[in-house]
Amino acid sequence: MPFVRISLLKGKSPEHLRAISDSIHRAMVEAFNVPPADRFQVFHQHEPAELIFDRNYLAGPRSDDFVLFAITAGKPRSTETRKAFFKRAVELLGQSPGLRPEDVMIVVTTTSPDEWSFGNGEQQMTEPGWEIRAMEAAV
């Protein structure tokens, strides 16, 4: 149940945003062990003065097409899984909508199950059998 915040500069078309959404979700399903129906994303579009990023820090050069993915995950993944996910995400985002690898930054933060409520004021992930119920609901 990762929650993905996607930050970028304003001005992209709805089709471009949908391609970003679809590509990052596909990478999560293929390489991050996320069920296909488990999609929670929020786009944050910023004016140039509201999205500050170093154009060369540890990668680059970054362009105005820079996109920051802040992913909050409910369970930790191994280093190998995260590495494969980062690689797959850049591949898919390169295919659609055509982002350059230098313009993709991904930060993964993990939390514990009792830090999530999917509604009704309940901590669903602390209840026995929640994973089975989540899979059944996705069908």
Could you walk me through the main structural features you see in this protein, from its secondary elements to its overall organization?
The chain has 139 residues and is of the alpha/beta class. It has a single domain, classed as Macrophage Migration Inhibitory Factor (2-Layer Sandwich), CATH 3.30.429. 32% of the residues lie in helices and 20% in strands. The chain has a four-stranded mixed beta sheet, covered by helices on one side. The chain is globular, with a radius of gyration of 16 Å. It starts with a strand and ends with a helix. 17% of the residues are buried.
- Rg: 16 Å
- Main β-sheet description: 4 strands, mixed
Class by alpha and beta content: alpha/beta
Distance between the termini: 15 Å
Helix content: 25-40%
Tally of discrete structural domains: 1
Strand content: 15-25%
- The CATH architecture name reads 2-Layer Sandwich
Briefly, what CATH class? Alpha Beta
Kindly list the characteristics that best describe this protein.
139 residues, 4 strands, Macrophage Migration Inhibitory Factor, 4-stranded mixed sheet, 32% helix, alpha/beta, single chain
Brief digest:
This protein is α/β, with parallel strands linked by helices and 139 residues long. The chain is 32% helix and 20% strand. It is globular and about 45 Å long.
